[in-house]
Design brief:
Strand content: 5-15%
Strand order of the largest sheet: 1-2
CATH superfamily: dinb family like domain
Oligomer: single chain
Order of helices and strands: HHHHHEEH
Number of domains: 1
Helix content: 55-70%
CATH topology: Four Helix Bundle (Hemerythrin (Met), subunit A)
CATH architecture: Up-down Bundle
Shape: globular
Largest sheet: 2 strands, antiparallel
């Protein structure tokens, strides 16, 4: 798969994630039905944070994530532990909309670079980026399930 195809796939997956945000209210975004460990808002923020973090830490690329987002949405975090304000859906949507072009700008010509640190035996930056698409799909599926269980 060539670089352009990977970035096209990234955009396709992100478009599906953003479509799931349509019609979600701020209130619905924070409902946590029984049997779910997080909320729609958490899943959206988590997609953003993990993608940046994997590329930065394991890929060794210069990708920054706001520290507040890391505290709210990193693996192991949960809404019940949040303190202070959380980003509104409009902010999360903007970050998610802009992330593909930012990463494309940062990573163009570097997807075949060796990863800075091993992650699940994935040897290159491009393979780590491809993994993040799987990760996003898992969380987009969770968002769909949450929407079905929090419909107003």
């Amino acid at each position: 798969m060539n670089e352009e195809q990977i970035f096209q796939q990234f955009n396709l997956v992100r478009k599906a994630t953003l479509k799931e945000m349509d019609s979600v209210t701020e209130e619905q975004a924070d409902k946590q039905p029984e049997g779910f460990s997080n909320t729609i808002r958490w899943n959206l923020g988590h997609i953003y944070v993990v993608q940046n973090s994997l590329i930065a830490k394991f890929g060794g690329k210069s990708v920054e994530t706001p520290s507040r987002y890391l505290k709210l949405f990193a693996p192991g975090t949960k809404p019940e532990d949040w303190q202070g304000e959380v980003p509104p859906l409009s902010d999360l949507k903007q970050e998610l909309e802009e992330q593909p072009s930012r990463l494309k700008e940062t990573l163009t010509g570097q997807l075949d670079d060796e990863a800075a640190e091993a992650f699940l035996s994935l040897p290159t930056v491009g393979e780590i980026l491809n993994f993040t698409l799987y990760h996003e799909g898992v969380h987009t599926g969770t968002i769909k399930a949450l929407k079905a269980n929090t419909a107003e």
